[in-house]
Amino acid sequence: MIEVLFASFLVMLVSLSGKLLTWRQAGPFIERNLHFFVSFAAGVLLVVAGSLSREIVEHAGSLSEGLPW
């Protein structure tokens, strides 16, 4: 169990250090284009939600059984 906790903590530290290095180097670029990134992320979210909705209805067999999720 301690190995899992240690590995999780190590992954967390590596992720945090990557975020800090990226923000220092690409921070101004990210801030200038943040509205494009947010719009892109919202579009991806809508596409994924639509795709999952179609798959849920397909597996449920009918619209009335699939959409109440």
How many domains comprise the coordinates?
A: 2
Biggest β-sheet strands, sense, barrel: none
Q: What is the molecular shape? A: flat
> What separation lies between the terminal Cα atoms?
35 Å
What would you call the structural class? mainly alpha
The radius of gyration is 20 Å
Q: What's the helix count?
A: 3
| Helix-strand pattern | HHH
Structure, described:
The chain has 69 residues and is mainly α. The protein has 2 domains: 1-29; 33-69. Helix content is 90%, strand content 0%. The protein contains 3 helices and no strands. It has helices at residues 2-32, 34-60, 63-66. The chain is flat, with a radius of gyration of 20 Å. The two termini are 35 Å apart.
Provide the fold topology.
Elements: H1 2-32, H2 34-60, H3 63-66
Keywords, separated by commas or semicolons:
69 residues, mainly alpha, 3 helices, flat
